[in-house]
Design goal:
The chain has helices spanning 53-58, 79-88, 91-111, 124-155, 193-203, 206-226, 242-246, 248-260, 274-279, 281-293, 325-328, 335-350, 363-371, 388-396, and strands at 5-9, 14-16, 25-30, 33-37, 40-45, 50-51, 65-68, 72-77, 159-169, 172-185, 189-191, 235-239, 268-273, 297-303, 320-323, 354-357, 376-377. The protein has 401 residues and is an alpha/beta fold. α3 (91-111) packs across α4 (124-155). The chain binds ligand C2E, adenosine-3',5'-cyclic-monophosphate and calcium ion (CA) (2 copies). Residues 178, 239, 271, 301 line the site of one calcium ion.
């Protein structure tokens, strides 16, 4: 972390000159600063104003000169301090910001009578900047398109739900399913939820999408139960997104859907990821408590991927802990992973939770997990996510394969 530091400028001294290369910005702590170009004074900035932000943001040359009009104290902002914020900003906004700066600079040039000369000896920095901006542009365009396409896909009902069996490990038998969303794009084919869930989340489109998943998964479970397909205790696990969890009215809508379906609430398992919990630990307790009051069960998804923190586990009323695939796929052949999973299973049991191992692909993995006392498993070893019809057939065959 860069430390904040101050710089003093006596009345009349220059802070920087137009054309200088430097990427710091300044906050006027006391005093006054004049911004000017050879054509005249652009502004006189009082205390608490910021200047020099243009070069800080786009690393171009200073667009104007800055001079202290009184004895002035400035707080220096280094690019490094805001680099993180820039990197994390929405790519569309980043692109528009760079566009805005570019346009402002070209207005400056036009007003000062400079004509645009295409410099054949363009510097490496200029070229690198152009590539970065082009990249940002592409990203922004793709992103805007994706947002539009997701919203169209909701209208055109291009989303559907598939069901991946969750198996008891001793003996192998079906215990329930996890509902997973799929998007069949008319031109691009199947789009992974990893590619569209985060965007749907940011735009709020996750709300209608999530409602559709709940509706389909609960309706399908109700139908299996009423037709006596699969065990009476068949459970359905449904993923909740941060928005469905933290937004009061969206959250209430989820609870309403769960409690008004024909599926006994204790056969519904709502999955929240470890990262959702850790992002907002103080609000989580109350929300999880409300879910528990409906009688639904709670699963902690992707355990081990985020902060791998055991310390918070006992604070929250989870019924199920899902060990992330990254541990499971390395459990055979890595003593360390084996020991970690053993510790996780032991701790979960001590806290009264059942354990589901995610992403079991091999017999050996299932066998190792079974020996470690892990009750449930999910993965391609048993079945990939299945259409409702294939899931029905899977249950009617009675056992996997
Ligand atoms: P997740 O909740 O951890 O779901 C498990 C993912 O692992 C699924 O990916 C599943 O297809 C995949 N998987 C299962 N077994 C294996 C295996 O043996 N090997 C490998 N390599 N992969 C396996 P999928 O369906 O692509 O979903 C990805 C993620 O998208 C999910 O991870 C979940 O975080 C999110 N997601 C999916 N559906 C929904 C939904 O309806 N709502 C929300 N909010 N998120 C969803
Ligand atoms: P930068 O280009 O880094 O250095 C000169 C600074 O002057 C610039 O950032 C802005 O902070 C400021 N500046 C440029 N144009 C104007 C303007 N039209 N009005 C006020 N301030 C300006
Ligand atoms: Ca999940
Ligand atoms: Ca998971």
């Amino acid at each position: 972390m860069t430390r904040l530091y101050r710089a003093s400028y006596p009345a009349g001294s220059s802070v920087f000159k137009q054309g200088d290369i430097d990427d710091r910005a300044y906050i006027i702590e006391s005093g006054k600063v004049e911004i000017s170009t050879p054509q005249g004074v652009l502004a006189v900035l009082p205390q608490s104003e910021i200047f020099g932000e243009m070069a800080l943001l786009d690393q171009g040359a200073r667009s104007a000169s800055a001079r202290a009009l009184e004895d002035t104290s400035l707080i220096v902002i280094e690019r490094q301090q805001i680099q993180n914020k820039i990197d994390r900003a929405d790519p569309v906004l980043r692109y528009m910001l760079s566009l805005l700066l570019d346009r402002l600079r070209s207005t400056h040039r036009a007003l000062s009578g400079q004509t645009f000369v295409n410099d054949p000896e363009e510097s490496a920095l200029e070229r690198a900047k152009k590539i970065a901006v082009d990249d940002l542009h592409q990203h922004a365009i793709r992103r805007l398109n994706l947002e539009r396409e997701i919203s169209l896909a909701v209208e055109r009902k291009e989303f559907f739900v598939v069901y991946q069996p969750i198996m008891r490990l001793t003996p192998f038998e079906i215990s329930g399913f996890e509902a997973l969303i799929r998007w069949k794009h008319p031109e691009r084919g199947m789009v992974s939820p990893m590619d569209f869930i985060p965007v749907a989340e940011e735009t709020g489109l996750i709300v209608p999408i999530g409602a559709m998943v709940l509706d389909a998964a609960l309706g399908q479970t109700e139908s299996w139960l009423s037709k006596k397909i699969g065990p009476n205790s068949l459970s359905m696990a449904i993923n909740l997104s941060a928005r469905q969890f933290f937004d009061q009215s969206d959250f209430e809508a989820v609870l309403k859907q769960v409690t008004s379906s024909g599926v006994p609430t204790n056969q519904v398992k709502l999955e929240v990821t470890e990262s959702i919990i850790m992002d907002n630990p103080e609000r989580v307790g109350g929300i999880l408590g409300e879910i528990k009051q409906t009688g639904s069960l709670l699963s902690l998804d992707d355990f081990g991927t985020g902060y791998s923190s055991f310390s918070y586990l006992h604070q929250y009323p989870f019924d199920v802990l899902k060990v992330d695939r990254s541990f499971v796929s390395r459990i055979v052949g890595s003593q360390r992973n084996h020991d970690i999973v053993r510790a996780i299973v032991g701790l979960a049991h001590d806290l009264g939770m059942e354990v589901v191992a995610e992403g079991i692909e091999k017999d050996e993995e299932a066998e190792t997990l079974r020996k470690l006392g892990c009750e449930y498993g999910q993965g391609y070893r048993f079945a990939k996510p299945l259409s409702a019809d294939d899931a029905t057939a899977f249950m009617q065959r009675g056992k996997p394969n």
